[in-house]
Design goal:
This protein is α+β, with helices and mostly antiparallel strands. The protein is about 25% helix and about 20% strand. Among the domains are: about 105-165, no CATH class; about 170-290, L,D-transpeptidase catalytic domain-like (Beta Barrel), CATH 2.40.440. GO terms for molecular function: peptidoglycan L,D-transpeptidase activity; transferase activity.
Length: about 300
């Protein structure tokens, strides 16, 4: 009985020793896939997308201590990244144009005219395209229906900007009341009331060759929101007649197609036709000066 009792005690002691040693010798999982052992800090995030909370305790500052002693690892001193032989970082070449818009052949001229006109945003007159210049030019093109409105200072944008910026509103002999003014030479029109400009110069298109719109002073004698043209079989929105069959109306074609022109009428963009209608009335004065080139 005594021998059998001693054998049981020895067997129990061996089981306890093997169990304790087995827990300590099991290799740690490799969450980062680095080939064995604990994953380095951050590797689990890179491979699995896990957050910091999923990393081992000893990598997150936990107070839990390991049950076995580990040999101290030698400290590795951080090495500085060697500098280039010149002692300076290489410069990254900058692109000459990093804006949303292309540089147009009339960049500086358009910048000059837009700065003079005002109301289209910040413009720097230096002949260089910037995002601010791009936005201002695009806004200008959208206002005057210049297609495509892409912010590029091309020939049409240059032509329209020049005509508007060089229009002399004093050429219109405006008295009391409302006066519609038309500069046939520059193909612009504006509205004055009691000698003051109430609608700034905008673009227009008057009679083409053989149908020249005559200069002179007239009065609006008929108004109709939508007038039918018998000779040309087309509707004329926001019609304001002032001389025979000639009057203001919204254009029915692309206004900047200078090759076709009108048959004597003063064509307007939609927004301007509406504004002119709101400002006018029967009896309003109309003054036309100059002559359209080529007519």
């Amino acid at each position: 009985m005594q021998v059998r009792h001693r054998a049981r005690v020895v067997a129990l002691a061996m089981v306890m020793l093997v169990g304790a040693g087995g827990c300590a010798s099991v290799p740690q999982a490799d969450p980062g896939g680095t080939g064995g052992g604990l994953a380095p800090v951050g590797s689990a995030e890179q491979v699995t997308g896990a957050g910091a909370s999923s990393l081992p305790d000893q990598l997150t500052g936990s107070d839990t201590k390991p049950r076995h002693r580990e040999k101290p690892q030698p400290k590795v001193r951080a090495t500085k990244t060697p500098k280039a032989s010149t002692g300076r970082r290489p410069r990254v070449p900058q692109k000459s144009n990093q804006t949303r818009c292309q540089l147009g052949e009339h960049q500086r001229e358009v910048e000059t005219y837009l700065a003079r006109l005002g109301g289209f945003g910040t413009v720097t007159v230096d002949g260089r395209q910037t995002d601010a210049d791009c936005a201002a030019i695009k806004k200008f093109q959208q206002r005057y229906d210049i297609r495509p409105a892409e912010g590029r200072a091309g020939p049409l944008t240059f032509d329209v900007a020049k005509r508007l910026a060089t229009t002399d509103v004093k050429r219109c002999s405006a008295g009391s009341g409302t006066t519609f003014c038309v500069d046939l030479t520059r193909q612009t029109t504006w509205v004055m009331r009691d000698g003051k400009v109430v609608a700034k110069p905008t673009v227009t298109r008057t009679g083409m060759a053989g149908y020249a719109t005559p200069a002179g002073t007239y009065k609006v004698n008929l108004r109709n929101l939508k007038e039918w043209s018998n000779p040309y079989e087309v509707w004329l929105p926001y019609w304001q007649r002032f001389n025979g069959g000639i009057g203001f109306h919204e254009t029915t074609t692309y206004l900047h197609n200078a090759g076709i022109g009108s048959h004597g009428c003063v064509n307007l963009l939609h927004a301007d036709a509406v504004r002119w209608w709101e400002l006018g009335k029967v009896g309003s004065r109309v003054v036309l000066v100059g002559r359209r080139p080529g007519t």
